[in-house]
Design goal:
The protein has 435 residues and is an alpha/beta fold. It contains 12 helices and 24 strands. Helices cover 27% and strands 26% of the residues.
């Protein structure tokens, strides 16, 4: 194998958002950077593109919805001095990576390889064509009747986007409810919104096998039911891309959930390696790429004791309305023995928010069903991470007549969250509640 004589300060596997952010920080710090990416990373995922088309209201628009190809996001980095290697990369030693037949010694490495769709062990699946989200957008024509297998966030987002674009779609969830683990009090009205959008829901539908049906595909369900469609899309989940990396050669420990890391995203077994994004096993169900990049840049480039906080990033389902969860759900708080108190905030239409707090009024979690759920959940996640009380949240200087202000105002009703006894504060609080 030809040997690469130069030693690289930072080697990055994966050209997604977190990997590119670290590459930019490394360049600014004067480091020599090599980045491995076997494909051309897109600035928007296939689900992003579908959701954007649905938001624009392009019902019945010509397929595909992706539009013109976007510029290569790696090109500006290559122009600034990053060595971009267009090949799959794997470890061959604790301080060495191999790609396209060449070895790349490194001082520090960052794994940002992301996740890949899970293919379920379903009888007959090997004999029929099936799609993932990227394959859906590669079709020359829109599916006449798309069968979406799965009930998580991605399955719900794709199914509703397809329906809003004017295409027939059926969502098949093997479990009793879509979005398992989310607050059922909010899932129920979201389920109604999906049906109103045109999504045919099939919950608690165990799939026994898959077979061809004329020019299409049929799912054979438990109990004898048969569901036919033109195309099948698999959206049952994703798994970290671990096997191509040969982590054992790099003495890098991993779990089924990803690269084993500590609170600072550093490998627990190879101190020269970090992992970021969804391939890092942080113990949280979602990752915040920007947060990960900042933590690693501070530690790797500046020698700071940087680490993730104690609050997980909010979970978000980008549906209409959107569903977001920051911190604990009510059920999770009860299971943890926190004796939660709950305030429900009715919003416009079917929208609703739930605030969960401990007996002293400190925020533990928030469940949101609203168009602005993603943005508001970010604010609430910060409040939860800072240990704010309902009183603290209600006192924030938020714009009036906004959903965020209504939720913050309701937080003042949490026990232990009374306003200070200043007459001026009481007067303005009363005016804000009545105006």
């Amino acid at each position: 194998m030809p040997e690469q004589t130069a030693s690289w300060d930072v080697a990055i596997i994966g050209g997604g958002g977190a990997g590119l952010a670290i590459a930019a920080a490394s360049l600014e710090a004067g480091r020599r950077v090599v980045l491995f990416e076997r494909g051309t990373p897109a600035e928007a995922t296939p689900v992003d593109i579908l959701l954007a088309a649905a938001r624009r209201g392009h019902q019945g628009r010509a397929w595909p919805v992706a539009g013109a190809p976007m510029a290569d996001p790696l090109a500006p980095f290559a122009a600034r001095g990053v060595t971009v290697v267009r090949a799959s990369a794997h470890f061959i030693a604790p301080r060495r990576i191999e790609a396209a037949g060449r070895a790349y010694p490194f001082r520090h490495a960052v794994i940002a390889a992301g996740r890949a769709p899970v293919v379920p062990a379903l009888y007959g699946l090997a004999g029929v064509p099936w799609l993932t989200a990227s394959g859906l957008l590669a079709l020359e024509e829109a599916p006449e009747h798309l069968l979406v297998l799965g009930g998580g966030a991605q399955a719900v987002e794709i199914a509703q986007a397809q329906a809003l674009l004017g295409h027939r779609v059926s969502l098949v969830q093997t479990g009793p409810n879509i979005l398992p683990g989310e607050d059922l009090e909010l899932v129920v009205p979201l389920r109604d919104a999906l049906r109103a959008s045109g999504v045919a829901l099939h919950e608690n539908a165990d799939v026994l096998s898959v077979e061809t049906a004329g020019a299409g595909i049929a799912l054979l369900l438990e109990g004898g039911a048969r569901l036919e469609g033109s195309h099948l899309l698999l959206a049952v989940g994703e798994a970290p891309r671990l096997s191509p990396l040969d982590l054992a050669a790099g003495r890098i420990e991993a779990t089924p959930r990803g690269v084993a890391v500590g609170p600072g995203l550093r490998s627990t077994s190879n101190r020269r390696v970090w992992a970021v994004g969804s391939i890092a096993d942080t113990g949280w169900p979602v990752a915040a790429p920007g947060q990960h990049a900042a933590v690693v840049a501070d530690a790797m480039l500046r020698g700071l004791r940087s680490r993730l906080g104690d609050t997980a990033p909010p979970r978000l389902v980008r549906s209409r309305p959107a569903l977001a969860q920051a911190g604990m759900t009510e059920a999770e708080a009860k299971a943890a023995g926190r004796e939660p108190q709950v305030v429900r905030v009715p919003l416009e239409g079917v929208d609703v928010a739930k605030l969960v707090a401990d007996p002293q009024g400190r925020l533990l979690g928030a469940s949101l069903l609203a168009a602005e759920a993603g943005e508001i959940s970010a604010l609430l996640a910060v409040a939860i991470g800072q240990g704010m009380s309902g009183r603290d949240l209600a006192a924030l200087p938020l714009p009036r007549s906004t959903t965020a202000a209504a939720i913050a105002r309701a937080a003042g009703n949490l026990r232990g969250a009374e306003f200070p006894s200043s007459p001026k504060r009481r007067i303005f609080g009363a005016l804000d509640r009545w105006l």
